[in-house]
Write a structure and sequence with these properties.
The complex is a heterohexamer, with 3 copies of chain A (227 residues) and 3 copies of chain B (255 residues).
Chain A lengths: L14 E5 L7 E7 L2 E12 L12 E8 L14 H14 L11 E11 L4 H15 L9 E8 L2 E4 L3 H4 L4 E8 L4 E11 L1 H32 L1
Parallel strand pairs in A: 4-5
Antiparallel strand pairs in A: 1-2, 2-3, 3-5, 6-7, 6-8, 8-9
Helix pairs in contact in A: 1-2, 2-4
Chain B lengths: L1 H12 L15 E5 L7 E7 L2 E12 L10 E7 L15 H17 L8 E3 L3 E13 L4 H14 L2 E5 L4 E9 L7 E8 L2 E4 L3 H6 L2 E7 L5 E7 L6 H22 L1
Parallel strand pairs in B: 4-6
Antiparallel strand pairs in B: 1-2, 2-3, 3-6, 5-6, 7-8, 9-10, 9-11, 11-12
Classes of the chains: A alpha+beta (227), B alpha+beta (255).
Chain lengths: 227, 255, 227, 255, 227, 255
């Protein structure tokens, strides 16, 4: 089976990960998956404002995901959409299990993610970037969170689809996991798929996360060396 | 509160529930068809004390530029402050948006509605199908109740007459063509065990949630994990299997 | 004189009133007048938030009236309109005189009303429902507030007009009163009417409130029995 | 403040007022016609220290779908923070919305403007008449001052030229046809007595308010009760009678 | 060179300035320059709300500039626009240097300006009015702020352009200054102009401020006499 | 913080800077052309640690009623909370609006874009050119960085194909015609001395700022004073002269 850009079904798009790209932030990272580019910056743990939102026994994690207006084929209107608000929510829940939030009670950890180019897979790129940015900020974590999406083109389960494949895929199944303990922190699916395919897609996606996980760690290592 | 939470957790660790249900048992679920005759279609679903009303309205509008020959589906959820002491007036909350989007995807991805049949004049006029979810009382598992009410309302929807200028909502002639009945089943993980159809007390202490929408043919059309704890593969597979099995039962209520 | 649905001029539409329809609320009620259906829920007295809105010597009464999107012939956009904001105001002022607000200083009593079907007379149905819901919540009241609207079709003053009569009525005069002391708590009018007709319409409307008042009390009685 | 309120209440209980007016006496009321020549019509009304400016602008727009051959009236009120230490910047307050809607209904229900005459091309183009109320200083009874200014502004309005594409606001040829002069009279109840045209100090302690709009023929076109105290029938009848009587006087100022 | 309304290049439009026009305000003024009419009202120094915006060592100055809907040829939509928000900012910065803000720590001084008729030069009229209103409020000032705009029509630098000249001017250069010490507190320019013309326009505008300054002081004097 | 501010002030009073630059010296400025290929044109400018990304998108829309034969320019700036601990999510702040408007005026008033050439069909369809400024890291002098990135992005912009119905953003054929290169130079006044290209530490303590945009021919197309201290004529003249001189250098980077 041949994919539009010549990749094998289980082959990811070319990946570039770089930590420490936003000097003002406590931690930051850029993740490029094909043409999709996400930049994540972490501020905190810092004082929670407004104060009534403080959580007594742990840090609050706040995530903002935004498409930059010129990142998409048709200009994206600035400001949150319903889609982006849902993505903020699932990204937050994807990251939360990995962070020792209980170590910073009453504070807030802010993760801001700007998608500066969107070519499918923006939420997975966002999670990969956010996870590296959190580690770069020195926030104690159980594991990095790694994310990739599976699809199905023809009879094949394929990984990390790009925009040219979006019209022909039978499903979009993004997943995020903490690989060390094989724990899944994000799982969504849109499509029309038999149960066995869903299970296969999940397993394939998790397996492919290993490659990304390695690149995440390399990016952090490179950053430490420079520091 | 804290004591009750602890009690529910203890029960859950043994696979038991506060209202004596089995792990794979739904609360008593009643589906009322077309209670609101001003709507093109409507349904009210009571799942235990959870009470959700869904109405369908059809208006004529312009198609999206990239879908010139297709009608549009718009799913919207209002968490009226009437339904819970925790809901507030204001713009939709994050959870209301998630609810609307999960219901939307269940209907859209299953292909339940053939949006091409909603085209009136290519590139100019199409039917816009508004599916509005109104919560009347929140006692947990809004996802399943809302999605069930939504597909029931669609199944009872009649298209109003349109003379090219005005929609006559008082005269409805043709039934909306609905091809599939997508039905969601939500399973939560509490204290290491999996339970379907959580009530609010269970939702408040759950670790993770998985909502799985299946079609008549058993295919899955939507997954949505929620909650801030992770799941392992076996738990997910359990939830998938429960969704197929319990989905069949719920589908019978839709009619 | 014959009305479109065969009613006599001073005849109300069929009325159904039920208390205790929203389990989560401290008090609630459903009122159906013809095809118009209002659900009211009361929460409180509870802590006022934000705090600077606390009133030192009495409870604040907050009312929200909303048309559910599918309640109307053309879909109603969610969110408050200028019309609904004005109705919130007049409903609040219609209820305030009936409540012993001074018994709960610094607190807030919230009355939420959703119109799930709108066929004229939504504000009167809303007031009737809110009043029963307040009593159901056990909030001490001077009297129930009862509300009905008068119109004029042809030469006749008519009561409780529905949507088919809305186009031909010469006025819309909603009124709310506490019957025990004949006190009027809401009075509005749109139309074009001689003074004597205005006076006649008011009197007829107040008289017809007695029937509604009885049904309100019956609904509460039925609810107490169940409790 | 508290002391002054008590003083006004004491006076009111004897039928007296802080500024020595009689119960049925309006403050000195001045009507200035067309002070703003950029507007199609305008008027400024000073009622004691209350100062209200109303401007009318006309634009071309589409009719409402259910009123294909009628122009539209839009009344809007801005409570500029300039006019009172209690006004704040932000979206219109509840009382600004009520003011706009009462003025709107007075004009609309009286039939003062024949909206059919504002139709340019049925179903396509109609005149939109924007009536904007701007408060310059708030010293009570904004309703009467604003409604008086609004009908005066309409009476002085000239329709700009329209060539089918652009409105030429610099060239105004025809007068807007105004059929009636609706005029409101507001009466408040303080300490059991009824007083017309309350100043701000009176409004702050009033129990109830009734605004009654009458037409040239004495018919009533709008009622609006305000305030959190009830009224009894005799009080309402008193306010209705005052509105007919004082309305005649105010109508003369409109010209 | 002849201007559309017969003025000389360095001639201002007829100016009327009146202090004390808004009885409720602590200070107020009306400035009319040709057909442009600005009303300014000052409230304060008063308590800052919300409290977290308090500045410990000086008063905060807040300015609101708004076009009244019927002030313009085409109706202006109520509510702030991007244009009006920028004008609020530059007006605030134009006034700040003139006020002894440090005398009223933690308080707020609010300046509200409504343009009731707009015929070019609204920001300069607004500043002239605000400055008189501040003085009328008895707020201690280093000097009045006086403002006028320069333009260029044909080969001539001209002052205080009206709307008929707006289409033909090669630039719009508003300036505000404290004349006593020749200090410039506002300077903006849009256009296409050689450096030497910019310098000439600035100097001419400053010079012409003297006439306005005199009228501002006269208005205040007249007001004091009445008081 | 306070100590550092005092230190910078002391240096500034002697004409010195914390990063050892001369008064008229810009930080190292790098211009990256077209980093975002989804945009019709884009540029990234790094000025020291300040990092700004600008993208140009072109859509088809209706002209303004008073400019029937002209395309429209829309400049928008988002101060993403990613770029600074001081930025918050929410609607554009006052300073973001000012930034967008100063960049807008520089481009518009210089005549860099011939908007008449952006007309597709008079009165009906024109190109809308959206210039979106995205801050990636804020270390002062956003004005110069953003305006530099904006003009560079425009110079690299290619117009997508339009078949009368849909814009094909994947096919871009013709270059956007750019007539001039407006370039701004910002000078701040600290402790009585004037410095170009302030870093954030300098901006935080500056008294006044003057941004001057010049064209290729040395003419000025936009001035904007900022800050709450006044300037005297000599200081302004100094800033004007610096803008002409340094503008020439910056213009070379644009290409």
């Amino acid at each position: 089976m041949k994919r539009s850009d010549g990749r094998k079904p289980d082959e990811l798009r070319p990946v570039v990960i770089k930590a420490g790209v936003v000097p003002n932030a406590n931690g930051s990272a850029m993740v490029q998956m094909g043409r999709t580019i996400a930049i994540a910056a972490v501020y905190g743990p810092r004082e929670m404002f407004p104060r009534h939102k403080k959580i007594p026994d742990r840090a609050a994690l706040e995530t903002v995901y935004a498409l930059v207006p010129f990142s998409t084929t048709d200009r994206a209107r600035p400001g949150p959409s319903r889609r982006s608000k849902e993505i903020c929510l699932v990204i937050r829940e994807a990251l939360e299990p990995a962070i020792f939030l209980e170590e910073f009670p009453k504070t807030c950890i802010n993760v801001y993610i700007d998608i500066i180019q969107a070519d499918a897979g923006t939420r997975t790129a966002a999670i990969n970037a956010a996870s590296v940015a959190l580690a770069d900020a020195g926030i104690p974590m159980r594991d990095l969170v790694t994310s990739v999406a599976a699809g199905k083109v023809g009879k094949d389960i394929v990984l990390d689809i790009d925009m040219t494949e979006e019209d022909i895929t039978k499903c979009d199944l993004p997943i995020a996991c903490m690989l060390r303990e094989k724990k899944i922190t994000l799982l969504q699916m849109d499509g029309d798929l038999p149960v066995k395919d869903v299970k296969e897609a999940m397993k394939l996606a998790i397996k492919s996360c290993e490659e990304l996980y390695k690149k995440q760690k390399e990016a952090l290592k490179e950053r430490w060396v420079k520091k | 509160m804290m004591l009750q939470n602890q009690y529910i957790l203890n029960l859950a660790s043994k696979g038991l529930r506060i209202d004596k249900r089995k792990q794979d048992e739904f609360r008593k679920t009643e589906v009322e068809k077309n209670p609101i005759d001003k709507a093109e279609g409507s349904a009210r679903v009571r799942m235990g004390k959870t009470d959700v009303l869904v109405g369908v309205k059809m208006e004529v509008g312009e198609p999206f530029p990239d879908k010139q020959d297709e009608g549009t589906l718009i799913v919207n959820a209002e968490f009226s402050p009437l339904a819970s002491p925790k809901f507030e007036t204001g713009p939709p909350r994050e959870d209301a948006i998630e609810l609307a989007r999960v219901v939307d995807r269940g209907i859209r991805e299953s292909g339940a509605i053939d949006t091409k049949k909603l085209c009136i004049k290519k590139g100019e006029k199409v039917w816009m199908v508004f599916i509005d979810i109104q919560i009347l009382n929140h006692d947990g598992n809004l996802m399943d109740a809302a999605a069930l009410a939504a597909i029931t309302a669609l199944l009872g929807t009649k298209i109003p007459e349109y003379d090219g200028k005005m929609v006559n909502h008082e005269k409805r002639t043709k039934k909306l063509h609905v091809l599939f009945k997508p039905v969601p089943v939500t399973t939560v993980k509490i204290a290491g065990n999996m339970f379907v159809d959580p009530c609010l007390d269970e939702e408040n202490i759950m670790g993770a949630r998985l909502t799985v929408t299946t079609k008549d043919d058993g295919n899955m059309c939507s997954l949505q994990k929620g909650g801030s704890e992770p799941l392992v593969m076996e738990e997910i597979e359990k939830a998938l299997d429960l969704a197929v099995e319990k989905g069949k039962e719920l589908r019978k209520l839709v009619g």
